[in-house]
Amino acid sequence: MVETPRETVASTTLGGERIPTVIVDDVHVVYKIHGRASGSSSPVAGLRRMLSGQPATQVKTVHAIKGISFTAYRGEAIGLIGTNGSGKSTILRAVAGLLPVQQGHIYTLGQPSLLGVNAALMNTLSGERNVALGCLAMGMSPEQVRQLTPEIIEFSGIDQRGEFSTLPMSTYSSGMAARLRFSIAAAKKHDVLLIDEALATGDARFRKRSEARVKQLRAEAGTVFLVSHSIGSIRDTCERSIWLEGGVLKMDGPTDEVVPEYEKFVNGK
Ligand SMILES: Nc1ncnc2c1ncn2[C@@H]1O[C@H](COP(=O)(O)OP(=O)(O)OP(=O)(O)O)[C@@H](O)[C@H]1O
């Protein structure tokens, strides 16, 4: 895949000790949903509410992450698994710094990159222009961008059925857009790369290429988090897995041990 101007391969240990890249310490994340207070929406009812001191809006809360702790180390690829709504995407967004934590702390070495979000793609611009924008946003020089653009486009495979790289991204299927986002983000070495379901998009051939790229990123001593419902992808890519259920950490350990327990849970055994 894309060969970036990479620094020399960083070591995964320092003085014999593993290097922590992400520390999640008793983290709670609570979503607040603002909605209109129940009751009539008529002006008279509104006036009555005002006079009686009742608020016009109500805040509902969802306690999505309930006291999760773990440490990730350099060189690890960690799968995040759990049933729908268990909190996988939420913890990933919190680690990326995109969601505030209600309680607890998250410490990271370097700036974690959540795949797709950091690339800041624009629908009205062509794939090529978006590659340039994404790469510049990740800190590459214009010269590096020029060098890497053809390789990123080729890796994404968006030109397999026509010259899509010259067309606006609004003409892409969601799978094509996801592949381009993955290709841009994966062109750079990241200290901490967070991938949410990205490998599940695209065809089998692209999935294979992207899995190989995740392995390469890990070998380059970054830390990779992968959220996926595809247990196959998790098994192939991650040697460690964290299983969340109802916002709580159920199990954290080698994928070979965590996945069978998760499968038993899902299959109701
Ligand atoms: N923007 C939001 N506002 C309010 N609640 C939210 C929001 N996003 C997620 N939630 C709630 O937080 C909880 C965790 O959701 P999250 O998306 O992190 O789960 P997930 O494990 O990634 O789910 P899935 O596997 O379905 O993608 C769920 O109860 C969900 O309804």
Structural class: alpha/beta
Unreliable runs: 1-9
**Helices and strands, in N-to-C order?**
EEEHEEHEEHHHEHEHEEH
Q: How many DSSP H or I helices?
A: 8
Biggest pleated sheet: 6 strands, mixed
Strand order, largest beta sheet: 7-8-9-5-10-11
Q: Label the CATH architecture of the domain at 13-115 and 186-266.
A: 3-Layer(aba) Sandwich
CATH homology group of the domain at 13-115 and 186-266: P-loop containing nucleotide triphosphate hydrolases
Overall body shape: globular
What does this structure look like?
It is a single chain. It is built from 8 helices and 11 strands. The protein is globular, with a radius of gyration of 21 Å. The chain has a domain at 13-115 and 186-266: P-loop containing nucleotide triphosphate hydrolases (Rossmann fold, 3-Layer(aba) Sandwich), CATH 3.40.50. Helix content is 34%, strand content 28%. Helix 3 packs parallel to helix 5 and helix 4 (142-156) packs across helix 5 (174-185). The chain has helices spanning 43-52, 88-95, 127-137, 142-156, 174-185, 204-219, 231-237, 255-266, and strands at residues 13-14, 17-18, 20-36, 57-73, 77-81, 103-108, 113-114, 192-196, 223-227, 240-245, 248-254. The site of adenosine-5'-triphosphate has 12 residues, from strand 3, strand 4 and helix 2. It comes from Pilimelia columellifera subsp. columellifera. Pfam families: ABC_tran.
